[in-house]
């Protein structure tokens, strides 16, 4: 198998952090997203949405969407479980993974894509008012997360999970989106320092 | 257990269609979203994001996020499988469920929430330019889906899955968003007619 990878972009990194936590090595095919390499035929013939990452299995089967790729590897290599354990535990991880993605990562991505000058060719049309509207949404969600993290170590419970990976890549994506974690959110800062210190965060 | 339900809104309906396909009956607690009932304490104390649906288990455990609720019921009642079979099959369903949700349902929702006068209090601020920008995104995705459906019966393969449920509720959400499936997309129309004719679509 091989993984068409997109460097620093959040979704490709989400899969690399996941693989690092599992201790899985997959041959990477680097694609230069800065040079719009993800819109070339090499990617487009594998993913009609022209997005990365893309996993290609040995029989040619294509799996796109970072969380679908992670879930595939979770089935091949169940340990350590990163999608939760037991029916309730797995539902809680799914709930938090979705909350982190749909309410937080997507707000940061909107602020970045609709406001950053470098995104002019990527996000057509850029709607600056929408980018601005997402900044308070991202910060409001972080305040909610801070209250949640007062009573537990990780986002979806007592174990590290894919919800923490989505949180990590989202927080690191705040900088290019010109956002910062407010000083007073001590629980978020404690959690972030812990997940960012894991070796997988370098992936 | 009980399911706090939100009537006609797409996400509550997604769970009801899923339960109907499984033949599962869960006691429903109706919440009047038109009267902003989802922002009342009854919901807010269970879901800090104040969204529906919300599943409450007998021990008080809360599961929110429609897909997390569906996944929980998939584990309790595996037949018929609606999240795919086998590691590759399940990854393909996850891939398509996400594509349908992130590229199609979310575009229709944005057009509805940012342009419909009734959404003024729900979506603050309404950004009309963003609503308009999403209309061609939704239609572009439908054209891609039409090409995909030329070679298979259902969205994620030869079996009905949660990706079809997300597709069904998204298409039905086009009407209030003032969008329509273009006449020439015959494969999408054939697929829609088939899934809309299933008894579960009435849920």
Automatic annotation (TrEMBL), chains A, B:
Gene3D superfamilies: 1.20.1050.10, Glutaredoxin. Residues 86-203 form the GST C-terminal domain. Residues 1-81 form the GST N-terminal domain. Keywords: Transferase. InterPro entries: Glutathione-S-Trfase_C-like (IPR010987), Glutathione-S-Trfase_C_sf (IPR036282), Glutathione_S-Trfase (IPR040079), Glutathione_S-Trfase_N (IPR004045), GST_C (IPR004046), Gtt2-like_C (IPR034346), Gtt2-like_N (IPR034345), Thioredoxin-like_sf (IPR036249). GO terms for molecular function: transferase activity. The keyword Ribosomal protein does not apply. It comes from the Bacteria. This is Glutathione S-transferase.
């Amino acid at each position: 198998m091989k993984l068409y990878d997109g460097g620093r972009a959040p979704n490709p990194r989400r899969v690399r952090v996941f693989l690092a936590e599992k201790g899985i090595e997959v041959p990477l095919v680097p694609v230069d997203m800065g040079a719009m390499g993800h819109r070339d035929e090499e990617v487009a013939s594998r993913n009609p949405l022209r997005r990365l990452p893309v996993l290609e299995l040995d029989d040619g089967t294509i799996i796109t969407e970072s969380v679908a790729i992670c879930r595939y590897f979770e089935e091949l290599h169940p340990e350590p479980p990163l999608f939760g354990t037991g029916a309730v535990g797995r539902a809680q991880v799914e709930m938090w993974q979705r909350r982190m993605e749909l309410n937080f990562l997507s707000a940061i991505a909107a602020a970045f894509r609709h406001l950053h000058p470098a995104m002019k060719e990527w996000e057509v049309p850029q709607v600056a008012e929408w980018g601005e509207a997402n900044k308070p949404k991202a910060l409001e969600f972080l305040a909610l997360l801070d209250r949640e993290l007062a009573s537990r170590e990780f986002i979806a419970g007592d174990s590290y999970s894919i919800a923490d990976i989505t949180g990590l890549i989202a927080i690191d994506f705040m900088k290019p989106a010109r956002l910062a974690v407010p000083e007073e959110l001590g629980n978020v800062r404690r959690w972030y320092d812990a997940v960012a210190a894991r070796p997988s965060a370098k992936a």
